[in-house]
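Lab notebook, bench 4. Still working through the backlog of constructs that have no structural model yet. Next entry is a single chain of 154 residues. Request: give me the structure tokens for it.
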Amino acid sequence: MTTLKSKLQEDLNAAIRERDELRSSTLRLTLTAITKEEVAGKEKRELSDDEVLKVITKEAKKRREAADAFAQGGRAESAEREKAEGELLATYLPKQLSDEDLNQIVAQAVQEAKAAGAEGPRAMGAVMKIVNPKVAGLAEGGRVAAVVKKLLAG
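Model written out:
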């Protein structure tokens, strides 16, 4: 059974052999972030695939934010590069939920929360509690919160 980390390592070696600069530098940075996470605690440990996914998600998010910042700053070339790195990392992540699927999950959670008596501003937390485990790793927190707010506002 190959771990996600070893798959990243294999893909890095292949990218180096193929002289694929974008892939090799992106994977190298990501593996560094994983290693940093492994030695962050009191003792060095091997990250589980779920933990590795969290690191990749964080790295992909950093790339998206950097791409936006570069684009706003008029640095199109840097923005393109960050975007390409983010897209490459996204290939290692579970497919994100479509807006339609996310709306459906949130709508159901809103009904559950209301049935349980949650309303007003307090409903937001109640709905997020129901939604988060269902969408973990499949939709970004900010995106989920925006849909919850929209549906609660009716």
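Notes after review: The mean pLDDT is 89. The helical segments are 4-17, 21-38, 49-72, 76-90, 99-115, 121-135, 141-153. Flag for follow-up if needed.
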